[in-house]
Amino acid sequence: MFKKIAVFGTGSMGSGIIQTAATNGLQVVAIDNERSSVDRGKKIIEKSLARFEKKGRLKESANEIIGRIEFATDPERASNADFVFEAIFEDIKIKAELYKKINAIVPETVPFASNTSSLSMTALAKASGRSSNFVGMHFFNPVPMMKLVEIIPALQTASKTVEAAKSMAEIMGKTAVVCKDTPGFIVNRILVPYMLEAARVYDAEIASPEQIDTAMKLGAGVPMGPLELMDFTGVDIAYFVGNILYDETKDKKFLPPNVMQKMVQAGWLGRKTGKGFYDYSKKD
Ligand SMILES: NC(=O)c1ccc[n+]([C@@H]2O[C@H](COP(=O)([O-])OP(=O)(O)OC[C@H]3O[C@@H](n4cnc5c(N)ncnc54)[C@H](O)[C@@H]3O)[C@@H](O)[C@H]2O)c1
Predict the structure, then answer these.
(1) How far does residue 262's CA lie from ligand 1's centre (Å)?
(2) DSSP label at 253?
(3) Can you give the pLDDT at residue 284?
(4) Domain spanning 188-273: which superfamily?
(5) Is 128 one of the catalytic residues?
């Protein structure tokens, strides 16, 4: 079974994948091409593990878990990995360039999973040069907390690679749902139009953010209202993903309303910038 994985990208998703894998006993080499991103990723992981430790939710010390992670900028460090994750920028050209590099380092038989949210797995599999051993594993933010991983076989993916992805999900303590390579997979296909509709309701001045979120929490039983959720995950992310899904499908349900474009231009991206649909400079 898998012992040592390589994760390319130590940003929001990569650091979550690294932390979750190490927490579940895997050796991890965490690679980013930017030293500052490696350092930031390491800090995020240390902080998050310290929180888990304080809450008594770790089976061993945070230090032991961190000890299983090697942080690096040199892709060569992935050479003896038996499973590779890619969680770098959402750009097929950048991903394809990296895949080429990885191909010269990691044998073609090693399973390779991309965490892409919106790019075609089939196109990425072609770019990977290891088509049958390539698969999508779409995690959710924050990875250590979110239980789901969508497994998306490309047209070329071998069934043994899907099985490898399922085993990896199980090792990482996630529930896997297999889904066809289709824009938005399952969650974003349903969630993005829902969040955008909430922004349209706000834009049309039908109700305030508080009223919209309260209505959905108490009327539909969701734990977080759609605008709170967008502020949490990033208004820019919903805007970006909505536009990509719209470009791919031409389905208007994915087209973000004008107010979101303005919010992105203003830097009102949600919690991470202190303002989104809500103002966080006065909250918590
Ligand atoms: N943010 C989310 O909620 C979310 C959810 C699911 C999937 N995804 C997907 O995960 C991937 C990463 O997203 P993110 O939000 O973590 O992005 P991010 O911008 O936080 O991190 C990306 C990291 O990749 C690094 N990077 C870029 N080019 C590289 C290269 N050639 N080699 C090594 N590292 C490189 C960057 O330095 C950066 O640290 C994307 O494909 C995205 O679609 C994101």
Answers:
(1) 24
(2) G
(3) 53
(4) N-(1-d-carboxylethyl)-l-norvaline Dehydrogenase; domain 2 (1.10.1040.10)
(5) no
Measured in angstroms, how far is the CA atom of residue 153 from the centroid of ligand 1? 20
d(CA 126, CA 113): 13
Can you list the positions of beta strands (E) in 130-275? 134-139, 148-153, 175-178
Start-to-end Cα distance in the chain: 44
Tell me which architecture the domain covering 4-178 has in CATH.
3-Layer(aba) Sandwich (3.40)
pTM for this entry: 0.93
* Residue numbers in the chain where pLDDT is lower than 50: none
The identity of residue 31, as a single letter, is I
Q: Which percentage of the chain shows pLDDT scores above 90? A: 96
Q: Residue 143's CB: how many other CB atoms inside 10 A?
A: 23
Query: CB of 90 closer than 6 A to ligand 1?
Result: yes
User: Ligand 1: which atom is nearest the Cα of residue 40?
Assistant: 39
Q: Do the domains at 4-178 and 188-273 have one common CATH topology? A: no
φ/ψ of residue 135, rounded to 5: -150, 155
The domain limits of the chain are 4-178, 188-273
